[in-house]
Write a structure and sequence with these properties.
This protein is an alpha/beta fold. It has one domain: 3-Layer(aba) Sandwich (Rossmann fold). It is globular, with a radius of gyration of 15 Å. Helix 1 crosses helix 5. It is about 25% helix and about 15% strand. Strands 1, 2, 3, 4, 5 and 6 form a six-stranded parallel sheet that branches. Bound molecules: flavin mononucleotide.
Length: about 160
Amino acid sequence: MSNILVAYFSAGGTTKRTAALLAKAAGAELFEIQPKEPYTAADLDWTNKKSRSTVEMNDPSSRPEIGKRLANMADYGVVFVGFPIWWYTAPTIIKTFLESYDFAGKTIVPFATSGGSGLGKTESALRPCAPAAVWKTGKVLRGETESSLKSWVESLGV
Ligand SMILES: Cc1cc2nc3c(=O)[nH]c(=O)nc-3n(C[C@H](O)[C@H](O)[C@H](O)COP(=O)(O)O)c2cc1C
């Protein structure tokens, strides 16, 4: 078994496709971070101040529940954590994920897909949720191929 994990949350499928390609490029296992309560189209309406995503993203204590726990996190030394950018940062379910496991001695590499935004301050916002991990600078992935992702993974030296 590979000791690299690609864990991702995807509401619309874009991050899911990118995560699958990254896992292939890195020879990694894939794990989907699935919300216990799936996001509906109405939940994702960023023009609505009362939609679920807007309410969660405005609440620093928001930690949406995850449906399924990964039983063998101990097997992995490197964890790529992927998500769509929501409001210039990571969806709060990523905080739930990071706070659900012991990342001591593990390396975390964040990655995202977006409509155009970069990672901005995402990394510093997530670090306190897994302070014992070694954090590598992540990336917004767009228009990648298996070989471009392979080069990126190799450049990280993980
Ligand atoms: C609630 C919400 C907020 C978003 N905020 C941003 C943003 O701040 N910047 C950006 O470039 N894209 C933003 N997007 C677009 C998503 O990041 C982009 O479409 C992403 O690739 C979706 O990934 P997914 O299909 O895996 O969910 C937002 C999308 C949603 C639903």
